[in-house]
Request: fold
Amino acid sequence: MNKKLEIAVKALDSKKAVEITALEVGSLTIVADYFVIAAGTSNTQVRALADEVEYQLGLEGYEPRQIEGKATGWILLDYHDVVIHVFLQDQREYYNLEKLWADAKELDISSLITE
Reply:
């Protein structure tokens, strides 16, 4: 599994993200190889989730190409081959990226998430 993806999932889990999902989209788009999608229950948590992902990836020397939406209910962290989407729960349901990318393979990340 991709190291950036693993770090991002573990970082999101450590801050109690809701419904973490990882999709393999490389065969469907040139934008990225993987999408990680997660939600928070408040704007504060969404920012904390994004900050933790950025911090943990930074510790490993990974720098984002771009970060968008810090003042909204959808923060996107672009790490070239891995793009992390952190939503407010209602925004996630509205945009429904899993449905939009229904042809993508969902990865089994259960070993990266604590119960």
Remarks:
- Residues 43-59 form the longest helix (17 residues).
- The chain has a mean pLDDT of 95.
- The chain is about 35% helix and 30% strand.
- Residues 1 and 103 are 19 Å apart (CA to CA).
